[in-house]
Task: inverse folding
């Protein structure tokens, strides 16, 4: 029986590309390229969870610029601003 020729695993640029590839390929065909790994997972508490939100591109650019000017991450800046706004309304 002839050996099955497999597609090479390409370099991926997005999670969507990874998903598309593995939706149409079996990891069993690439078993010789795998190795055992060990890792720990720390689950976040309810208060530490991450939420994704979609921003308008211009808003995102302005947030990034403002965060850079203040020397903080976008996440820190957004959390600070949201905290201030919620406390104002309380």
Result:
């Amino acid at each position: 029986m002839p050996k099955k020729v497999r597609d090479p695993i390409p370099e991926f640029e997005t999670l969507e590309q990874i998903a598309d590839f593995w939706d149409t390929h079996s990891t069993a065909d690439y078993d010789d390229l795998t190795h055992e790994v060990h890792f720990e997972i720390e689950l976040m508490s309810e208060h530490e969870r991450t939420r994704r939100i979609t921003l308008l591109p211009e808003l995102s650019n302005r947030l990034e610029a403002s965060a850079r000017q203040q020397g903080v991450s976008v996440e820190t800046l957004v959390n600070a601003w949201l905290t201030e706004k919620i406390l104002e309304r309380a």
Notes: The two ends are 73 Å apart (CA to CA). Residues 6 and 29 are 7 Å apart (CA to CA). The mean pLDDT is 89.
